[in-house]
Amino acid sequence: MEYVYAALLLHKLGKPVNEENLTSVVKAAGVPPDTVKIKALASALSEVNIDEALKNASMMAAPAPSGQAQAAPAAKAEEKPKEEEKKEEEALAGLASLFG
């Protein structure tokens, strides 16, 4: 994960995300650099528009809407038919007899 953080830091600072810069950042963080991981990351990111990827990632992590939309499922869960509740109680009583 430290390699991805290094790439994000370099991108934020406007520096090229390449093997040399990634190695420098990782070393500065006190982590022994893994050249295979650094080469793979630099190669993978050379084809990626990081700004666009970050924008898309933040859209995917948007919070759920609040208000009535969230309250409706909770209300439905509370409105269980009496018959269903009775069956659940009987099932639990049957399980309790196994341990009692």
Structural description of this entry:
The structure is a single chain. The protein is an all-alpha fold and 100 residues long. The protein has a domain at 2-60: Arc Repressor Mutant, subunit A, CATH 1.10.10.1410. It is built from 6 helices and no strands. It has helices at residues 2-12, 19-28, 35-45, 50-60, 68-78, 82-99. Helix 1 (2-12) packs across helix 2 (19-28).
Number of strands: 0
Helix content: over 70%
Under CATH, the topology of the domain at 2-60 is which? Arc Repressor Mutant, subunit A
Spans of at least 5 consecutive residues with low confidence: none
Biggest pleated sheet: none
The number of helices is: 6
Distance between the termini: 50 Å
CATH architecture of the domain at 2-60: Orthogonal Bundle
> Which CATH class of the domain at 2-60?
Mainly Alpha
Mean pLDDT: 80
What are the secondary-structure elements, in order, as H or E? Answer: HHHHHH
Using the alpha-carbon principal axes, give the shape. elongated
- The whole-angstrom Rg is 26 Å
How does the helix and strand content classify structurally?
Answer: mainly alpha
Assess the beta-strand content as a share of residues. under 5%
Descriptive tags:
100 residues, mainly alpha, Arc Repressor Mutant, subunit A, 72% helix
Element layout with pairings:
Blueprint: H1 2-12, H2 19-28, H3 35-45, H4 50-60, H5 68-78, H6 82-99
In short:
The chain is an all-alpha fold and 100 residues long. It has 6 helices and no strands.
